[in-house]
Specification:
Layout (H helix, E strand, L loop, with lengths): L1 E13 H5 L4 H4 L10 E13 L2 E5 L9 H6 L8 H7 L9 E3 L5 H4 L3 E3 L6 E3 L5 E4 L1 H8 L11 H9 L3 E3 L11 E6 L6 E8 L2 E5 L22 H18 L2 E3 L8 E7 L2 E8 L1 H4 L1
Parallel strand pairs: 3-4, 4-7, 7-8, 11-12
Antiparallel strand pairs: 1-2, 2-3, 5-6, 9-10, 10-11, 12-13, 13-14
């Protein structure tokens, strides 16, 4: 098995929304905001090379939306989903599986693209199976008012229309013996996190339960979460397990670090060693 970090670019979100009830005077020291109170966040994906499977976890936001919409999120940086995969040595037709942590636009938008003549949409990875949880798929197609603005039909329906949609909860060991899905409900209904057994270590793709190292303290919960108290419970369980078993936590949005280990301090469980994935494996 090999793991490759895939950079799908950066975007900006309101710092207050990202940290919920935590005051700016505290979180701004870790993730500084600009003059508009916006913080830069990564759209970090993970490519898992395991035997005859090449599994891509998340796809960033893509570039289908019009320039006005894109401007709301201040896309910046050199990151590009397909180019980053190519830099890792692979083509889009080699990806066998696309695993969505969830179907919010910044995690799934890159999985569907315009056709060359812009007459409609097609899947970016034409031979891949696209995976999500069946309950989450239903949530994305019939969203609550809180999440309605982040689920886009053009990001998800072309996958079903192409016959590439699969539900991970309906198949035993959908991603093989080394990659185990963990389903959580705090951020959104049945979001998929992944526990990856790799070279004697356990790497956990944290998705939006803990989007950055700055979100490790239990009350640091995003304003986007549909069940923030549930997120806190899920974080507490995961962090205790990570501390006990020395897990490596992989972050999807951290603008500074790919991952970290954790340790117990007088303030609770906090980041210990932080850095790039290659620094640890």
């Amino acid at each position: 098995m090999q793991l490759h970090v895939i950079d799908a670019g950066h975007f900006k979100l309101d710092g207050g929304a990202m940290f919920g009830v935590v005051p700016k005077t505290i979180w701004n020291r870790m993730i500084p905001a600009d003059e508009n109170n916006l913080c830069s966040w990564d759209m970090r994906c993970l490519l898992i090379e395991d035997g005859n499977r090449l599994m891509l976890v998340d796809t960033g936001m893509g570039n289908k939306q019009d320039p006005k919409w894109q401007a709301y999120y201040y896309r910046h940086g050199e990151g590009d989903l397909v180019k980053s995969i190519q830099k890792a040595g692979f083509g889009v037709d080699q990806v066998t599986d696309v695993i969505f942590s969830h179907l919010h636009f910044d995690h799934c938008g890159g999985g569907v693209e315009w056709k060359a003549d812009r007459s409609g949409y097609q899947t970016t990875f034409p031979t891949a199976q696209y995976w999500t949880h069946s309950d989450h798929w239903n949530t994305a197609n019939f969203p609550n008012a809180r999440e309605k603005a982040t689920f886009f039909k053009e990001n998800i329906l072309p996958i079903q229309e192409a016959g590439q949609l699969r539900f991970s909860d309906q198949i035993e060991n959908p991603f093989g013996s080394h990659v185990t899905p963990i389903y959580v409900d705090g951020h959104t209904e049945k979001m998929t996190m992944l526990k990856i057994a790799y070279k004697g270590q356990t790497v956990v793709f944290m998705a939006d339960t803990i989007p950055s190292h700055a979100h490790l303290p239990l009350p640091y919960v995003m304003g986007y979460d549909v069940r923030p108290l549930e997120t806190m419970k899920e974080k507490e369980t995961l962090l205790k397990e990570a501390l006990e078993h020395n897990y490596l936590l992989f972050f999807d949005h951290d603008p500074l670090f790919d991952c970290c280990t954790v340790e117990i301090t007088e303030k609770g469980i906090r980041a210990k060693d932080k850095g790039l994935l290659r620094d640890f494996i």
